[in-house]
């Protein structure tokens, strides 16, 4: 991949995870393009999650709790003494269930996926891999070979989606000089690395990538604040910026293909990476529906007291 495109031409986003200012619910705080004080945006993954069928993941988590519970036999008596309807006991039981999931290995795949995501950035920047296992190197070789025809433009840059009132970070914006499934030149594409089973949550993936394709890059570093300083952070949240100041933080994501995106599916430990076109037209409809459903769920005032005449 990297012999086709100079690493110096690739824009690298800042590490928005711990650095972009966030509210107490983890929502990114963004200064609006039209100016004013920072406002919270729903995370893209949170937004599109409302349209996902969670039945399979719920069943999976149940199995993990059951398996993990086998390693916690000494606590069985304590667990039986807890009341699942009591608020304090609920929290304890939830924590124990998470611990059981972890003991069963429920987090192993997720952690491995995060590890491979980090390694893929080294590949796309044309850098040597850090110390890692032989299997990691095999997986990264598969990733590099599968994406050899892509020219990486941007890596992990934060995007604001005004229509969805959401913000998030696409893995890559990449150029493909070939044709998309509709026979048109693909051009710049939102490309996303997935390390899990992509047979689940396909519509959610399409909505996620479509949202990014309809967004703008946002440089939060233009509005610096030490979020660890509570007093300074509280003052920053009340601060206002003029439109000409805030507009400088926004830049076009480019002429990104609004019809098609690309999923790069790398399953850990397999040495296999496959590419899959994903329908962003359908994904955009799903993203808009997700915004509507998200708002409906936040306002559940549907009951009106029945008064006898």
Summarize the structure in words:
The protein has 309 residues and is an alpha+beta fold. It has one domain: Lambda Exonuclease, Chain A (Alpha-Beta Complex). It contains 11 helices and 13 strands. It has helices at 16-19, 44-48, 55-69, 76-80, 87-103, 108-125, 134-146, 202-213, 230-238, 243-246, 280-298, and strands at residues 11-12, 29-30, 39-40, 42-43, 150-155, 159-161, 166-168, 172-179, 185-194, 216-218, 250-252, 260-267, 272-279. Strands 1-5-8-9-12-13 form a 6-stranded mixed beta sheet. It has a 5-stranded mixed beta sheet with strand order 4-7-6-10-11. Helix 8 crosses helix 11 (280-298). The longest helix has 19 residues, at 280-298. Residues 1-11 have a biased composition (Polar residues). Residues 1-26 are annotated as: Disordered.
Short descriptors:
309 residues, 39% helix, alpha+beta, 13 strands, Lambda Exonuclease, Chain A, single chain, disordered N terminus, six-stranded mixed beta sheet, five-stranded mixed beta sheet, 19% strand
List the helices and strands and how they pair.
Elements: E1 11-12, H1 16-19, E2 29-30, E3 39-40, E4 42-43, H2 44-48, H3 55-69, H4 76-80, H5 87-103, H6 108-125, H7 134-146, E5 150-155, E6 159-161, E7 166-168, E8 172-179, E9 185-194, H8 202-213, E10 216-218, H9 230-238, H10 243-246, E11 250-252, E12 260-267, E13 272-279, H11 280-298
Parallel strand pairs: 1-5, 4-7, 9-12
Antiparallel strand pairs: 2-3, 5-8, 6-7, 6-10, 8-9, 10-11, 12-13
Helix pairs in contact: 3-5, 6-7, 8-11
